[in-house]
Structure formats: structure tokens, C-alpha cells
């Protein structure tokens, strides 16, 4: 049994990670400030005596005793990270410094949840870990893109300078139950709009591509990365299946049985045209690849959002 700190543990991915770690017998200290996360994501975990929650913002130092650290704390959707871009950069940079300092004091292993956004609008396709990226350092997305890039720099400098055991993963588009219904991410946005029979927004012509990884597959990859002793990273974790946004929208509308129409809008600034991970490194070093197909994962995610919207509509005054 290990005592494991998960920052951002009440978030979409973090709550699934906490759940998985508890299921295998670990103690989990979940830290979150509820800026974008939801209490109901971890409500069911409070009954577990091995689960502990602490409300805290990691831009401030944290003094706890743990055996491993998963650093997931940061708003991850454009709607949320652009709301307070200075705070987003602080969470990425100051938060990384504080968590790395804690890991250094405890001499424990620490994993950084980085992102495919470090590749920006890539000119290499698919994206390998060796690709340095094509990022606009002063654009609207830079608080997140450059913040995560700087966090990676800090992790590897602590590794080289202090011998710290770091693990860095780059997460590609991930979806599943417990996504925030108003986070503006493409999967949650399409599903919520379709369930309400509202227009589904398509930016540009909808021919830009993304790769969608179901959250259970991602969490398996995260834990394998943390628990192996050979590799610091970075390692891409994502599903290499590539779909256009229009293909995703059509699939969501079909699975929901929705009457929603498609509403076309201009492309946002610096929105990547193509995004697909090369996961050959993860396959070779971690023996990992996603197992859940997009259609199957969408069915599970739609069921979650359908139940969520029905519960909200049943509340008094709705």
C-alpha cells in the first residue's frame, strides 16, 4: 500500500485516477481547489477510509507526507484556462515548482500530466515525443500551452539537477463520464447540445481532426507510467484513431437520436488543424495502447450526460 497525492483529484481525469488507485488498495490524498472540478466527482469516494480530501491551491506550498505524487491540477479546457490566463500560468509553473519541491523533500516519484497542446498547431503528423512543437507564445492559448511546456522544463531540470524521479506524460484528447458539462470541450459540448436538441457548433468546415481516448484507457496508461522504473518520459498517451470534427458530430447526433442541426462558426485563434498521437513509445515501453473504441466510449459518456441532465431538470425551480 502506498499513500498517493493526486492534485486536481476532484477533476474529470483526477477523480477516475483516485478511484482506480483506491481500488487497487492504495491510500489517496486528493487535493483540489474546485476551480473547475465538481464535488460530486468524488462524493462516492468519501465513504472509503483510505480516501482523504484537502481543499488547497497548489500555487501555494503544500506540506504533507506521501509516497508518490500525480500532478494533474490545472484547468484543461479553453473556456476555463482562458477565463483567468495569469492564474493558469501560475498553476502550471508555481504549482509545478511547489509539487517538485515537495517531491524533492520526500524523495518520492512524481508524475506530471502534460498535454498534447505542447505540440501547438503541429506541422508534424502524427506527433512523436521528439517533435518540439509549433506554439504561439503570445496567443490566447499560450497560458496553457506554454505553461505546460515550462512545467515539463522544470520537471526535467529537477531530474537532471537533483536526481528526482520524474514521470512526464502528454495527454491527448480524453473523454468520458464526469466531464464538466460546460467546459466547452468538443465531446461534452456536442453531447450536451445533442441531448437538448440544440444546434451543434462546428468551427471552420469541421474537417480539422482529433483523436479521442476514453478515460479508463488513459488512467491505465498513467499508472503504468508511474509504476515503471526505466523511463522519465515524455510519453504520449492517447488514442491514435483520427476523426474529423464533422465525423464526431454526426456520430454523437446518431447515438443520441437528436434533431440538432449543425451551426458553423469561424475557427478560433491557434486552433490545431490536425492532432493525432504516435503512441509507439508507449506500446514499446509500457505495453500500453487504448482498448475502447470511440463509439463504445461515446455510448457510455452519453448515458452519463443524459442522467446528469435529467437529474438537473428534476430539481425544484428547473
Q: What gross morphology would you assign?
A: globular
User: Main sheet?
Assistant: 7 strands, parallel
Which band does the percent of strand residues land in? 15-25%
- Our count of helices gives 9
Tell me the number of strands.
13
Low-confidence stretches at least 5 residues in length (pLDDT < 50)? none
The first-to-last residue Cα distance is: 45 Å
Largest beta sheet: what is the strand line-up?
3-2-1-4-5-6-11
The radius of gyration over CA amounts to 19 Å
What proportion of the residues is helical, as a percent range? Answer: 25-40%
Name the helix and strand elements from N-terminus to C-terminus, one letter apiece.
EHEEEHHEHEEHEEEHEEHEHH
How much is the average pLDDT?
A: 94
SS class:
alpha/beta
Can you describe this structure?
It is a single chain. This protein is an alpha/beta fold and 318 residues long. The protein has helices at 12-23, 78-81, 85-106, 142-162, 186-195, 215-227, 245-256, 280-286, 294-313; strands at residues 3-7, 27-32, 51-55, 68-71, 109-115, 166-171, 174-175, 200-203, 209-211, 213-214, 235-237, 242-244, 262-265. The strands form four sheets. A seven-stranded parallel sheet has the order 3-2-1-4-5-6-11, with helices on both faces. Strands 7-10 form a two-stranded parallel sheet. Strand 1, helix 1 (12-23) and strand 2 (27-32) form a beta-alpha-beta unit. It is globular and about 55 Å long.
Amino acid at each position: 500500500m502506498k499513500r498517493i497525492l493526486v492534485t486536481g483529484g476532484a477533476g474529470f481525469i483526477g477523480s477516475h485516477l483516485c478511484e482506480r488507485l483506491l481500488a487497487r488498495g492504495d491510500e489517496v490524498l486528493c487535493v483540489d481547489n474546485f476551480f473547475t472540478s465538481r464535488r460530486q466527482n468524488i462524493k462516492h469516494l468519501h465513504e472509503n477510509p483510505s480516501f482523504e480530501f484537502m481543499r488547497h491551491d497548489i500555487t501555494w506550498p503544500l506540506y504533507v507526507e506521501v509516497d508518490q505524487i500525480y500532478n494533474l491540477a490545472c484547468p484543461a479546457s479553453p473556456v476555463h484556462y482562458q477565463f483567468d490566463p495569469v492564474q493558469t500560468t501560475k498553476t502550471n509553473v508555481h504549482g509545478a515548482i511547489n509539487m517538485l519541491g515537495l517531491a524533492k523533500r520526500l524523495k518520492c516519484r512524481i508524475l506530471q500530466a502534460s498535454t498534447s497542446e505542447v505540440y501547438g498547431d503541429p506541422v508534424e503528423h502524427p506527433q512523436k515525443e521528439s517533435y518540439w512543437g509549433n506554439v504561439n507564445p503570445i496567443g490566447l492559448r499560450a497560458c496553457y500551452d506554454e505553461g505546460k511546456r515550462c512545467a515539463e522544463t522544470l520537471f526535467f531540470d529537477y531530474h537532471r539537477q537533483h536526481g528526482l524521479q520524474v514521470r512526464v506524460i502528454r495527454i491527448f484528447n480524453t473523454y468520458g463520464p464526469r466531464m464538466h458539462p460546460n467546459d466547452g470541450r468538443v465531446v461534452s459540448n456536442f453531447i450536451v447540445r445533442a441531448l437538448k436538441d440544440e444546434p451543434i457548433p462546428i468551427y471552420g468546415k469541421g474537417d480539422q481532426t482529433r483523436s479521442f481516448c476514453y478515460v479508463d484507457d488513459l488512467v491505465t496508461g498513467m499508472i503504468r507510467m508511474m509504476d515503471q522504473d526505466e523511463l522519465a518520459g515524455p510519453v504520449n498517451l492517447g488514442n491514435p484513431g483520427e476523426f474529423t470534427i464533422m465525423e464526431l458530430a454526426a456520430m454523437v447526433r446518431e447515438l443520441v437520436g437528436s434533431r440538432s442541426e449543425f451551426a458553423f462558426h469561424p475557427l478560433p485563434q491557434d486552433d490545431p488543424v490536425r492532432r493525432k498521437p504516435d503512441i509507439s513509445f508507449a506500446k514499446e515501453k509500457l505495453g500500453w495502447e487504448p482498448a475502447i473504441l470511440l463509439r463504445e466510449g461515446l455510448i457510455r459518456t452519453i448515458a452519463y450526460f443524459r442522467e446528469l441532465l435529467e437529474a438537473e431538470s428534476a430539481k425544484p425551480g428547473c
